[in-house]
Amino acid sequence: MNADSIRPAPAIDAGPPVTPNAPRVPELADARRVQANFLETLVFRFLATPLALLLVVLQSRYLHADGRGTFVLVVLTVTVVSRLFGQLGYAVTNRMQQRGVELRSLVRRALALGVVLGSAGTAAIVAWASVARGVGVVVGAIAAAALVPTIVSHSVSGVLLGLGRVRLWNWIQVLPQLLTLAAFLVLVVAFGGGVRAAIVAATAAWFATAAVALVTTRTDWRPFALEGLLDLLSLTLARLALVMGAVQVVNLLSYRIELFLLDGYRGIRAVGVYSIAVQAAETIWVIAAAIATSVTAPAVHEDEAAAARLIARSALRGLVLSAGLAVVVGVGAPWVIPALLGHAFSGAARPLAFLLPGVVAYAPVTVLVVYLSVRRGQPRWSLAVSAIGLVVTTAAAVVLIPSHGATGAAAASTIGYVVAAVAAWIFFWRLARPAVRSGIL
Description:
Blueprint: H1 31-85, H2 88-95, H3 103-131, H4 137-144, H5 147-163, H6 166-190, H7 195-216, H8 232-254, H9 257-266, H10 268-282, H11 285-301, H12 304-341, H13 349-362, H14 365-375, H15 379-437
Helix pairs in contact: 1-3, 1-5, 1-6, 1-8, 1-10, 1-11, 2-3, 2-5, 2-8, 3-4, 3-5, 3-8, 4-7, 5-6, 5-7, 6-7, 8-15, 9-10, 9-15, 10-13, 10-15, 11-12, 11-14, 12-13, 12-14, 12-15, 13-15, 14-15
């Protein structure tokens, strides 16, 4: 998992330059720079949160529970596939430490691979939608069209974090929400469109975001060329990115699998209501995500001991701050949810209360995987964390959802979050043990 992988809000929505012509990798950020990046990212995240909340309110009011349930499932499916193929930028970030490799060449290869892999994924999504209950091939095709621009945007974002260009990264993160909201207001609110119009709005937003990402980073990849797409360097990038992507997919499924199970046991309306609890609970991750963003570049360029120390401190900080925000969310939710979304969604408050402890426990994992996957280039440890969470959550959901519905789904998620978080700390401690023994941590 990585800083930008944490939430698709509209759907429930993680070495020095080697040639004189390569884009300059920033010097190691000092503590003040890390703090500045954190505060700036936090500002952007809190500005984006009202946008995401407003979009949730509008979806709930205009699409109702059934329509929101369909929207959530189809966009979630696109998100799952984009997470598999969208980690190419983070693979580039990892390879920045190697000498003898031009950064521009890495970025070009990442973008080319993203387009090729995304095209294959688009066909797979359409095939799934044609047989999925409550979706259909037309809705699936509209959503699938967003896959390639989503992958391109994620890839560029990964490169920007590696370069320490946090401000531009922040703008690229907030654009999909801002543009989706604007398009939703036109297509759904003003012209009375339904679920298809809402998905068109999200797809158009990702196309616009990808265009902005490519234009603003053009000096990092132009001139674009497809040669070398199948050479050893490209295959190395693809292999590392796919492993990181597998981490993302398994991780996403580990805290989304209950949505699919809830749909099977209780129907699409239950998914629509429960998704509100998920959206509200996971706003808590905004703090940990901001911390992870701010420490990515320093963690890559610091020496091993300093990187381990930075990650440990940052993860603990994320845990404490997330717990404080959870108290605020938990106290206000029973009154705020029905007031904003209507009484049809008042049932989201109870599962939210069961979700909050797990969401808090899992918050530091966002920071820990920066060390596991990006700094150490060993995403198998992050994959293990996600796999453990997926297995535990699925087992608990199968037991709890049939008898307890959305509340059972929330309890299952919390159990999975807690077990996965413990595993993440154990893996981090194992890799960082040399620094611990030398008295660094």
